[in-house]
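Subject: mismatched residue count in predicted assembly?

I count 653 residues in my input, but I want to confirm that the predicted structure covers every chain. Input:
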Amino acid sequence: MNWAHWIIVPVVLPLVSGAALLLIERSRPALAARLSLLATAAHLLVAIGLAAQAADGTVRAYLLGNWSAPFGIALALDRLSALLLVLTGVIALAAVAYAVAGDAKTRIDKLGPHFHALFQFQLMGLAGAFLTADLFNLFVFFEVLLIASYGLLLHAGGAARLRAAIHYVSFNLTGSALFLIAVSALYGITGTLNMADLAQRVAQLPPESASLARSAGLLLLVVFCVKAALLPLYFWLPTTYSAATAPVAALFAIMTKVGVYAVARMFTLAFGADGGVAADLAQPWLPIVGLGTIALAAVGALAARDMRGMIGYLVIASAGTLLMALGLGSRETVAAALFYLVNSTLVVAVLYLLADRIGAQRGEHGDLLAPGPFGSERSLLGAAYFVAAIAVCGLPPLAGFLGKSLLLAAARDTAYAAWVWAIVLASGLAIIISLVRAGSRIFWKPYEPPAPATAIATSSVQVMALGWLFAALLLNTAAAGPLARFTGAAAQQLFERRPYIDAVLGARPVPAALPIREILGGKPGKDKP
Amino acid sequence: MTIELLLAIGLGVLTAAGVWLLLRARVFDLIVGLTLLSYAVNVFIFLTGRVRIGSPPIVSDKLAPTLASYADPLPQALVLTAIVISFAMTALILVIALRAHAETGSDHVDGAEPSGATAAERDR
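Triage response: the counts match. Full output below for your records.
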């Protein structure tokens, strides 16, 4: 496992398999589905291997094209990026399995072209965004994952998806424009794009560049909050995610976490406590905006008319909780946030897949929160929904409860303690009420006759995909101790920025196997001085 | 100083026009607005290398080998990436807009006129 190139594998593997899938998806569709599953499983295995490497606490840097940092693009692997890579892999595997499940008429990947290729490209963008140590490269990987997500959102077509896509694409294009302005403004003042180098140079900026650096930093915060769906910028999310097909929505659950990751990375590394004139840039904003997001998301969940709309607001509530905890800015709150992130992402993916099954069982009623006929799987899906609802609203005994209690305990020493406790607990109650209402309307009051003619049975592969995610949720609960230690260490690593900077800037290029002159065909000693 | 001032004013006008068009809630205006915005961003990226006359970004024998005689090549590389991405995205959103128009028969970004709109507002 000591091969230095493992770090680039999560980016290259989906790129190669996605390109191969484009070539074979028409001529050999069965092989393409199998290859997609295999590539996603391999992606997860590589991610687990990288997490095992990162668990020793050293930051590993990888120089793309053997150019030394800060001149070339560097990738860096630490505990936080490894954790998110594994989480992406777990959800992606369930999503692909769910998409290829069922017979030829109900298979989701058959509803439109290029599903598997776009899926792999989205994985590539996600892995790249989690690994890169270069700000412009982060923009490029954001674009890669967004372009793939536009295609995936439109998968299976239809007016509702097109309407959602116009909002989603134009919103994100505007976000990308702001991202470019922020990045190039930072380049204009500091002369670097490497995050580690940027962190050092921002700290040494003279006071006259303070306002420009601070506005560029806050512009970055706005862009990341567009991705993470924070208070004034979340209105696109519920409609977009409910318009997407179920496996795509499940994968999108990790996409809001890219914004959370980027905030965690940039606002500890470059704009954290050691940021000089731009120190603690996000501190005054994130707790307030995060708490507002949680409160409004709870109201939205109460007002939702269908299940997928309700889950959309649960995604927003989770993003609000995470960014609020990041904004509180102590190691304990960040550690609790990272612990909470794992559970909340997994459970949202579970809920999107479950909502699709419920919709398939209820015929024309779909996932509307109204009583209606139900197919033969009412008790099975009801039990699954019950477990997922407990996990998502943070009740014991599942890990959602542990995450929330860690967070509330960590928030006790901060200035916002009273507000955090009041709003998190009150919105938790509102979310419990909306989950209970949804459950009782859908499962408790079936009409007679019980089974509508159009109910589509859950296939064994779909059961396996859901079972895999439930197993991950239970493992998250059973292994809560080791996971909490890992996220605690990851938060520690985020705040001690020196090892990250040293690892990235200190990475030395590998000596070339052949001297460069031999490759170019020149003779030594005859060059110009 | 004049050239910087001119460029800054041009950027401001482009951005303002782009944002105004974005807020018009019509798909065509939205796309033109996004295009103007991306032009403004591209010029902005280019300008982060500072405006300099007669300094190429590529090493040449005719110039003194100091940083002062060369322009920064990096913003030019960055702007190339940004142009390619924004060009592809404009093509994509055009396709989505055409498909959406074919499906919904409306050029409003919500796919239908807001319920309170009068005929005069719709024609505008």
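Confidence is low (pLDDT under 50) at residues 523-529 of chain A. Marking this ticket as 'not a bug'.
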